[in-house]
Amino acid sequence: MRLLPKEVESLWTLFTGPTIWAVHFLVCYVAVAIYCEKARTGPFTFAEMRLALVLVTLLALAGIVLSAWLAWRQWGFGSGDPPHDAPTREDRLLFQGFATLLLSGLSFVAVLFVAVPLVLIEACQP
Amino acid sequence: MTEVVAFQDLSADEREAQERKLREIWRTPCGWRYWTSVNNTQIGLWYGAAAFIFMLFAGVLALLVRVQLAVPENGFLSADLFNQAFTLHGTVMMFLFAVPIFEAVAIFLLPSMLGARELPFPRLSAFGFWSFALGGVFVCGSIFFNAAPNSGWFMYPPLATDKEYSGIGADIWLLGLSFIEVASIAAAVELIVGIMKCRAPGMRVNIMPLFAWYLLIVAGMILFAFPPLIAGDILFEMQRMFNWPFFDAERGGDPLLWQHLFWIFGHPEVYIIFLPAIAIMAMIVPTFAQRPIVGYSWIVLAAVGTGFLSFGLWVHHMFATGLPQISLAFFSAASEAVAIPTGVQIFVFIATLLAGRVIFSVPMLFGTGGLAVFVIGGLTGVMVALVPFDWQAHDTYFVVAHLHYVLIGGMLFPVVAGIYYYYPLINARKLSDRLGKIAFWIMFAGFNVAFFPMHLVGLRGMPRRVFTYPADIGWDWFNLVSTVGAFVFAAGVVVVVIDVLRPKHRQPKEQINPWNAGTLEWISEPEENWGVRSIPIITSRYPIWDQPDLLEDINAGRYYLPDAQDGARETLVTSVLDARPIQCLRVGGTSILTMVAAFSLGGVFIALTFHWWIVTIFCAVLTLAAIVAWLWTATAEIPRAEFRDIGLGKKLPLYNSGPRSVGWWGMFITMAGDGTAYASLMFGYFFYWTIHEDFTAGHAGPGVAWPLLAAGLFTLAWLAMLLARRVNASDRPGMTRAALLLSAALTLAGCLAGIAGPHRSGMDPTAHVYPAIVWVVAIWTVAHGAIGIVMQAYCLARSLAGRMSARHDMDMHNVVLYWHFLVITAVTSFGVVGLFPAVR
Amino acid sequence: MAAPLVLPGCAGGQSALDPAGREAAEVYDLFVVMVIGGGVIWLAVIGLLVHACRRRRRTWSEEGAGRLIAWGGVAFPVVALFALLAYAVWLMPSIRPWLDRSVPEPAMIDVTGEQFWWRIRYPAEDGMAAFETANELRLPVGERVAFSLRAADVIHSFWIPSLGGKMDMIPGRTNVLSLLPTKTGVYQAPCAEFCGASHAYMAFSVIVMDTKAYDDWRRRQAAGNRPGGSEGERLFAHHGCAGCHSVRGVTPVAGLGPDLTRFSDRRTVGAGALANTPENVARFIRNPSAIKPGATMPAFDMLSQGDIAAIAEFLTGRP
Lengths: 126, 840, 319
Fold this sequence. Notes:
The complex is a heterotrimer.
Chain A: H1 16-38, H2 46-74, H3 89-120
Helix pairs in contact in A: 1-2, 1-3, 2-3
Chain B: H1 12-25, H2 40-70, H3 79-114, H4 122-141, H5 163-166, H6 169-197, H7 210-242, H8 255-289, H9 296-309, H10 325-337, H11 339-355, H12 362-384, H13 387-393, H14 397-427, H15 433-459, H16 476-501, H17 543-546, H18 550-555, E1 569-574, E2 581-587, H19 593-609, H20 613-634, E3 643-647, E4 650-653, H21 662-691, H22 705-729, H23 733-760, H24 769-800, H25 810-835
Helix pairs in contact in B: 2-3, 2-4, 2-16, 3-4, 3-6, 3-8, 4-6, 4-19, 6-7, 6-19, 6-21, 7-8, 7-9, 7-21, 8-11, 8-14, 9-11, 12-14, 12-15, 14-15, 15-16, 19-20, 21-24, 21-25, 22-23, 22-25, 23-24, 24-25
Chain C: H1 22-53, H2 62-90, H3 96-99, E1 108-114, E2 117-122, E3 131-134, E4 136-140, E5 145-151, E6 156-158, E7 167-169, E8 175-179, E9 185-190, E10 203-209, H4 211-223, H5 231-238, E11 268-269, E12 274-275, H6 278-286, H7 288-291, H8 305-316
Parallel strand pairs in C: 1-5, 4-10
Antiparallel strand pairs in C: 1-2, 2-3, 5-8, 6-7, 9-10, 11-12
């Protein structure tokens, strides 16, 4: 599978995972903020909005897994262990792959954390 | 594989001639002109010293607060003076110490750590410093006139918008600090470009010092965290000065908007303070573990992860404001998640120490002591991040204890460790081991005695910011103990100050790199201003450990740029990822213009505080003149030769434009910050829409026609700018000037159309928040249009003066970049105010 | 009379560590769990740190140290924080509708924060009339009560540490807080959001009583004072006190300052500033801002000692 060319070389790939987390977080927050203020006039119920946000969460998790997979590939599927400190382009790529993988992991966990309230909380206010 | 370098050895005479020339060019001026220096070592030192003086001042305020609270029903301070003291304590510690001290350390250390002569915009650093110093003195001085801000460092309206209560203090806070925020953003631009573009050749991102990684993230955070506060300040000051009701609930405003904007800044701020201190730890730990850091990538993960997550925490300062509980829970979740990268960093340090052989020293003592304190703060942080617990702990002394454990353990102790560690770079001598140990134990004991009881007294119901408390409520002993501890802690700080200030000329000089550290900052000699004698090729994370004879080769001038040409200060620009050299950059030298610009800008803010309108206008014009003069004389200069031989058989261009130039990056980053401030204003617009059933409250809007016309005119102006850049590139100066003029005319028309919308529908901004926010959005956009016209005029003048040509078109590229942002702003602004919430 | 219920001891309880309500107890349990867990974690981390700094010890391999980061710095915190988060979210009232939807909504007590006192309005309920009072809240034990919280001027925060968490009172917004007191007693409640010069002197008392005593008290409050024709009563109206303060049954309704109906039942004067004695009331009338900086009530030091004493006697019911 070659979704992206292997040679994508950019500092910004590092931020894919956290960016997905940020977008997911923002969508959840904005959706809830607007829903809870405008609930009386809105066409959705709380449960429907929750369901939609769960779908967004799954989408975000899928995106992070994809970014992790790409990073894993860049890391040579775990072939080169850290510390990746040689002054070569190759080690620099391995480093980026590994760091991106770690960040994807953190983002995955952070998205899961943010999903906890979606599962447990049932209303805007008690 | 390493590049093979063929050194060419010069004779001793030639070397000396080079050194003389370099020394002359990087010389610090004498006499009063000393203060016009822009060299990073001086600016860094002044910055640090000023921040430290502000810290001591704020510390004294804290002691006053503690004396007042030592016994119940105390009359030492009046309620009002107490409120001024705690407000100023928090404000000064946050804005005038914690953030600037990191800017100071970064400006001082980064160039040599990256193997650069200078940061790319030295005059910007100087401008930032002078803005900071002036703003700081202005804010601090207010308490001597009994006019200090007294509404808490968070300045919640409506208390802080109540002129009767807050007097002029709130204006001093808003304007003085806006001025300092400008300085912080200037530093952020400088650091981001410096770290990305000015590393020594070969210093790829995987071997760049961790300090630089941290600072890169922190500077990025500043760029997105400070602008929301600036936007908030604008709204706030508009309410105070002109009665526009942004936070007045009776006229559709909402005090909560300020809380959102303040904490969108305020929470990342905590990490902006914490990460640089941990960055210092990340330099100290490998030195004393005598081995490279274990888990370099983990640190990068932690820094980047914290940087992102820290923007999802702000509502945890607002858990008790009655927001929907599911929103609270989202922020609670993110606040728990941010503990993970924080924990990773601590474990990276422990792992590195375990894998090395530890030499225990004063910096390590402060470092590990700080960690022990910080971990407690981190654990209580996990507690207060849980919504139900926070409902009890919020706004009590528990939080006071928590935040001091975090900031003193996570920031002050590591900074003192940094002072003990890096002092030899300033003075070629170490600070005293004995005094250091004494200071540490006094501070450590005093700190815990002062702050640990606050956890308990907070849970026993003592709210924050009370100027006194009843005797029979069971808080007296806790408070007395805290006060004693605070004085002990202060005594420890005094010992550090004595150690730093005591004369050391009798102490023998240390050799270079006395701690036997591995990173590049240790090659610099305190006497020399040039940063590095020649710019080395770096092949390791710890070049001094791993690259044999590096020091000798650098100092023998065997690497790049060993000499100076054309009397210019020069450093190398390299590529972002692999640090391949791409340009020889000439940076600005000693100049008084930066000082003039900073002081006149300061004049603008100070005059605004006192509503001296004429002085304001005069200072604004002076600022503009100084900035234009500064740009005109020192940027985008067309070099005499296109290429420069940098040594080792390498030639680099002296002039680049577009994304290859540092100026373009500076503009891009500045505009990212500017765009964030704008986004915050638009957040306000939609915020008001969500909280009201009918956002307009029956007030007339600006209509559809005028706003859309304005958006269209701005788009045409942008197209004209694209045309100007294109014809300029094909060397048709006449056409270029015509296109610039056309674009300026279109912009002017766009600005007028933008104002015409709200003006012609008679929108009264004092009547309700809807007209007020529409006006603010329109004014923001039009003001940016006006700045755009100034830039076009500048390009026109450069073209007429022969300072801009087809090949040398940096100014044009930067202005077009500005226009990209401007056109997005204009189309969004006028599209939104014209079409939303409903076409009428 | 319900006087014996007002327990002795000048200050009531004001501690989150001594819970007297369901919410406070839940948070207290959470706190205990976290303190124990946090203590263990702190000792472990610092133990490792101290061990790492020892001179004579085995040096770890890089792989071993890397594993420490992965397990100690990542795996353990992720699991522990996840569990803690779920536990804490579980305690939030918004998941309760799902657990128990049958309980009817309690009637709301309106509380408004003003600089620097608390306006309290009890709703009409169970055949008892609605009434206004100030700076003292009485609640029945074992019954869930809900508060509707507003602010008149600046932001204040409503917090009864012994009963549960706090909730801000924000101009232009109405917040709701629901609490369940479980123990009778007297509790203190400070304003928890900085609100100006006398933020330190803005507190109210909470008296949790058994249901019968509570009903008696409500009835008495709703009935108001009985006109007695005393000198103090006359001076209260004559010197203009009644222009701002209502004493229901005696003076016409005036809403600017705290309602002083059945003031003799209250524990404090000046929203927690002083104990409710005739001397303190007199002191307060003479110069409120000497006691509470920034108080809006003007000084009445031009009145004679005798007049002030008479008014104080009228209010406190004691000479």
